[in-house]
Design goal:
Jelly Rolls; 331 residues; mainly beta; 8-stranded antiparallel β-sheet
């Protein structure tokens, strides 16, 4: 799987934050992790210079480099990053590098900037192109909570995307009883879907309630036979006890009904899971849905035993804000 298909661990919506930077004279460090795509406004200026939608330091007149420290919204294994220099043409950094560290608790700025921190190299100094998406795979298989992003020698970066696999604190989760096996913050992932024209499939398992219609999974209008679907890899195999299907904000475009099926094939590939010959067991039979409603199901569910993956089908098309799948871990 291309690493950009994974969750953005540093996403602002997931709690990611740029905690400290050595310089953000022209454009604030907080812009770096905005979920929205960067924009350019030709005639917009501030009292410090040209307004830019990114993090931008002043022109360096001494040796060295600029840097910022990022708290990941969801700790995990980083598989790749995209350094987006959109609209930075004559003012982008020539190179960048990335380091990682793992902290417990809530470290202070003093903790993060201490010389005692053992930063692990994740990406060596690499060349950047201006006004471009610069993707870099990363090979490091340990859990990371914080990043140190360096730019050489100075300049501006519009966005930093940090794609990876969520690794939660399982000891803590196991003490919580029922957990959301399909939640992104617990390590679940929407592997594939039939369509996501209006809303990305990952929205289905994001934390919290959807902010609006764009914050859900929504397919285009289906003009032929069939129905839409999404396949979800659960955070860990478990037994499903309760389901929530939330159609909030979808009023004229909610699905007529939905169906949830499960299988226990922890080693299955996307190709296997999308193969029509792969057997699935019905957890929730095809059930009618309502507009702008949180639907809860427990008595309606069939006991299919341990599940590692789900296939969520909507008929014939439409939008769903969130899918919650509460259950118990088997490990």
């Amino acid at each position: 799987m291309n690493f950009t298909e994974l969750i953005d661990l540093a996403s602002e919506r997931l709690g990611g934050a740029v905690l400290v930077a050595n310089d953000d004279f022209f454009a604030p460090k907080e812009n770096l992790l905005k979920d929205s795509a960067p924009i350019f406004i030709a005639d917009k200026y501030t009292d410090r210079g040209k307004w830019m939608d990114g993090w931008e330091s002043r022109r360096r007149r001494t040796p060295g480099f600029d840097w910022c420290i990022i708290r990941l919204g969801l700790p995990g294994i980083v598989r790749g990053i995209v350094v987006d220099t959109s609209f930075f043409r004559g003012n982008y950094p020539e190179h960048c590098s990335l380091e990682g560290a793992t902290f417990s608790g809530v470290p202070t700025e003093q903790d993060l900037t201490s010389d005692d921190v053992q930063w692990v190299p994740l990406l060596p100094q690499v060349q950047l192109s201006g006004d471009s998406q610069n993707p870099f795979p990363i090979s490091y298989n340990e859990r990371i909570t914080h990043l140190r992003f360096k730019i050489y020698p100075d300049g501006g970066v519009a966005r930093l995307r940090v794609y990876g696999e969520v690794v939660p604190d399982w000891d803590q989760l196991k003490r919580a009883g029922y957990i959301d096996l399909a939640a992104a913050e617990n390590g679940a992932l929407v592997l594939s879907c039939s369509d996501m024209f209006f809303g990305h499939r990952h929205n289905l398992i994001m934390p919290g309630r959807a902010a609006n219609m764009s914050d859900g999974w929504e397919t285009k209008r289906r003009r032929g036979p069939g129905h839409d679907w999404a396949i979800i890899k659960l955070a860990k195999p478990g037994e499903i006890k309760r389901i929530e299907v939330d159609t909030s904000h979808f009023k004229g475009n909610f699905p007529e009904s939905c169906l949830l099926e499960a299988c226990n094939r922890a080693d299955a590939t996307i190709e296997t899971l999308t193969d029509l010959s792969t057997p699935w067991s019905s957890v929730l039979p095809r059930t009618k849905l309502q507009a702008h409603t949180r639907h809860f199901f427990d008595q309606e569910l069939s006991d299919t035993g341990v599940a590692s993956h789900l296939r969520f089908s909507i008929f014939p098309d439409g939008g769903v804000s969130r899918l919650r799948v509460y259950g118990t871990l088997i490990e």
